[in-house]
């Protein structure tokens, strides 16, 4: 590309600019209107209760107001037990509680005790009222189940209460049960059907323990996040005044933190020597829901120690080879510190982007749920004997007077699943795809709006010859209003390109998931290559968009022109880009690592009761890793929010710095706008003028 020429009228971000990429702006507005229409249609037809509450065989919700089953305060869906394994689909009814005893209908009817029959009747269909009806007819008409077994509620459904006692599988206190037809069956026959329920039950117990840990430690977690926020803010404030010292202190502290981690892992590894069970390998142990088990293995601490040693060596080698370039990175950080110091509101601006992203996520998630639950109840014919209408759709309202009941007396019209055959239901998958696409587009637009706003504010700082006197009164607000007024189309264009790539990546991930069971190695290889290529393409487009937004904020050009100019500018200074920019990013990463590592270690010692001063204050926990991981992840997000502002500031100043070198030569007519420190570092001067 051609280097930028000197322009005597250029004094920073151009205020006299026009609207760019109007077509993309119109497309975005139309897409948002369509997205709102899709949401309204989905909210009109959808019903999230379908994925939360169970239904009976007629598709009616259990215990919900406005349905015949609203009287059941504790609804569960319990299937009728069929006498034959090949029988039709079991009937489901809503009950107020799960059965707590073994009982067959024949035995309940034979005792002639009103209490037994009254207890049994609550597990019969609601229409069954005649307790004097012949029991054979009751079972034939499926008014009541043939037998009841002790059950427990899980996910609002009743499952057999299976437990193991001394290696013996039992339901209730028995190993066999009467199936209601005079045959004794082993309870192991119920085990296969309850396996998935047991997995869900174990997961539920794990989730409950984690929830209990959050209830007793939430305020300490908040305190930890506040400490991370204060540490991030103090770190940034100190960078403004002591950038060089803080960078070197940060580097030394990270090395020391990693060194302590290596030492701690070695001490734990040595302490476990000779203890029973500590030499078991991770592969032999397998996956365990109680993660504390892994901390009693020497191999776990050995793996931690090796990983930390590798990270330590890599960081030291990078610092040795890049030590000369670190000085230039420090100069950029100092300049960014001054810029952020003059625009302190920029540190809070990521909250605006975060709020917009939360809106996008909430709208996408709610629309997805309503779309997935907007199907209608589909009823099908179920029968015991051979019937030509078996499996066909039917209508419960007219089923009893149809020809089906005449040709197949034992046939029933029961709820099968949620579906639909209308035009709306046939295009549900298209609407879901549109929902995902719009989520990516709007989320990328929100991120782009934040980037171009920060870029405009920091560019106004760099191109102010007398800082901060020549800066606008409200640089952040000015940049934000310019971005929305003139460049909504350009931001939509960049976000659209990125959204298309991300949708393709999601589609490839979906295909990869579907092909996992396939045995086509060529297809898997091709899919892996495509995933890798689109991952690289997404990274490149993000990098190009970021720099294009900076050019848009400064010059007010359209997206394609800005992307081209930014790309050629970076290519003309590829060595500076590869070294200075990436070294700065690396230093920011070290800063995040220091904050997260320090807060994480503090949380570890606190929640494991290893700080004697506050030993009695730390709450008792089921899994101490729950609050520790929460604090670590939260600290990283907080530090990332603070440093993302710094990162955008450095990138903006770096592009402006490159433009400054190309446009100006330090003469009285073409003075440099860079700070005195950068001029001194690069041995540049403004001839005939004092440094600003």
From TrEMBL:
The keyword Transmembrane helix applies. Choline transporter. It is a multi-pass membrane protein. The chain crosses the membrane at residues 21-43, 218-238, 245-263, 301-322, 343-365, 438-463, 484-504, 548-571, 583-607, 623-643. This is Choline transporter-like protein. It catalyses: choline(out) + n H(+)(in) = choline(in) + n H(+)(out); ethanolamine(out) + n H(+)(in) = ethanolamine(in) + n H(+)(out). It is found in: Cell membrane; Mitochondrion outer membrane. PANTHER family: CHOLINE TRANSPORTER-LIKE (SLC FAMILY 44), CHOLINE TRANSPORTER-LIKE PROTEIN 2. Its main location: membrane. It comes from the Eukaryota. One of its GO terms (molecular function) is antiporter activity. One of its GO terms (cellular component) is mitochondrial outer membrane. The keyword Transmembrane helix applies. Pfam families: Choline_transpo (PF04515). Keywords: Antiport, Cell membrane, Glycoprotein, Membrane, Mitochondrion, Mitochondrion outer membrane, Phosphoprotein, Transmembrane, Transmembrane helix, Transport. Belongs to the CTL (choline transporter-like) family.
């Amino acid at each position: 590309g051609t280097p930028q020429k000197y322009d005597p009228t250029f004094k920073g971000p151009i205020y006299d600019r026009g609207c760019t990429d109007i077509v993309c702006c119109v497309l975005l507005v139309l897409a948002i209107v369509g997205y709102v229409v899709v949401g309204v249609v989905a909210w009109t037809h959808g019903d999230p209760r379908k994925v939360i509450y169970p239904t009976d065989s007629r598709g009616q919700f259990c215990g919900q107001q406005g349905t015949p089953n609203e009287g059941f305060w504790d609804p569960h869906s319990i299937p009728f037990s069929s006498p034959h394994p090949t029988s039709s689909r079991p009937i489901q009814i809503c009950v107020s509680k799960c059965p707590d005893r073994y009982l067959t209908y024949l035995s309940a009817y034979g005792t002639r005790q009103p209490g037994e029959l009254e207890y049994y009747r609550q597990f019969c269909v609601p229409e069954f009222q005649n307790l004097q009806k012949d029991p054979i007819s009751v079972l034939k008409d499926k008014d009541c189940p043939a037998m009841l077994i002790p059950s427990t509620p899980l996910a609002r459904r009743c499952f057999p209460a299976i437990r193991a006692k001394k290696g013996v599988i039992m339901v209730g206190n028995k190993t066999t049960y009467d199936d209601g037809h005079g045959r004794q069956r082993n309870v192991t026959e119920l085990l296969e059907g309850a396996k998935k329920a047991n997995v869900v039950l174990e997961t539920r117990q794990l989730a409950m323990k984690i929830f209990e840990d959050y209830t007793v430690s939430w305020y300490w977690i908040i305190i930890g996040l506040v400490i991370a926020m204060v540490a991030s803010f103090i770190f940034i404030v100190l960078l403004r005044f002591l950038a060089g010292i803080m960078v070197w202190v940060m580097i030394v502290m990270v090395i020391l933190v990693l060194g302590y981690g290596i030492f701690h892992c070695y001490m734990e590894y040595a302490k476990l020597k000779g203890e029973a069970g500590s030499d078991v390998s991770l592969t032999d142990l397998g996956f365990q829901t109680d993660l504390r088990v892994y901390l009693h293995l020497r191999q776990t601490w050995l793996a931690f120690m090796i990983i930390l040693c590798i990270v330590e060596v890599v960081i030291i080698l990078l610092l040795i080879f890049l030590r000369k370039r670190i000085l230039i990175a420090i100069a950029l950080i100092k300049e960014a510190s001054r810029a952020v110091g003059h625009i302190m509101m920029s540190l809070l601006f990521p909250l605006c982007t975060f709020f917009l992203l939360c809106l996008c996520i909430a709208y996408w998630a709610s629309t997805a749920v309503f779309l997935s639950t907007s199907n209608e109840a589909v009823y099908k014919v179920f029968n015991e004997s051979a019937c030509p209408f078996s499996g066909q759709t039917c209508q419960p309202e007219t089923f009893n007077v149809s020809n089906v009941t005449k040709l197949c007396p034992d046939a029933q019209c029961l709820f099968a699943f949620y579906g639909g055959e209308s035009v709306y239901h046939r295009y549900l998958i298209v609407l879901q795809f549109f929902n995902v696409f719009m989520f990516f587009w709007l989320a990328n637009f929100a991120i782009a709006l934040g980037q171009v706003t920060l870029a405009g504010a920091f560019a106004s700082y760099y191109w102010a010859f007398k800082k901060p006197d020549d800066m606008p009164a409200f640089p952040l607000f000015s940049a934000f209003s310019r971005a929305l007024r003139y460049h909504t189309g350009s931001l939509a264009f960049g976000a659209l390109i990125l959204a298309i790539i991300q949708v393709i990546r999601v589609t490839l991930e979906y295909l990869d998931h579907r092909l996992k069971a396939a045995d086509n190695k060529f297809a898997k290889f091709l899919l892996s290559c495509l995933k890798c290529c689109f991952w690289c393409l997404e990274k490149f487009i993000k990098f190009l968009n970021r720099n294009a937004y900076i050019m848009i904020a400064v010059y007010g050009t359209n997206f394609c022109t800005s992307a081209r100019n930014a790309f050629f500018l970076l290519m003309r200074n590829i060595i500076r880009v590869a070294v200075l920019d990436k070294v700065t990013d690396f230093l920011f990463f070290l800063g995040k690592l220091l904050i997260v590592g320090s807060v994480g270690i503090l949380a570890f010692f606190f929640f494991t009761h290893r700080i004697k001063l506050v030993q009695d204050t730390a709450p008792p926990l089921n899994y101490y890793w729950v609050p520790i991981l929460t604090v670590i992840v939260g600290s990283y997000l907080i530090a990332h929010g603070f440093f993302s502002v710094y990162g955008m500031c450095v990138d903006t100043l770096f592009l402006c710095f490159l433009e400054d070198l190309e446009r100006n030569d330090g003469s009285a007519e073409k003075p440099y706008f860079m700070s005195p420190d950068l001029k001194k570092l690069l041995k540049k001067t403004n001839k005939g003028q004092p440094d600003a």
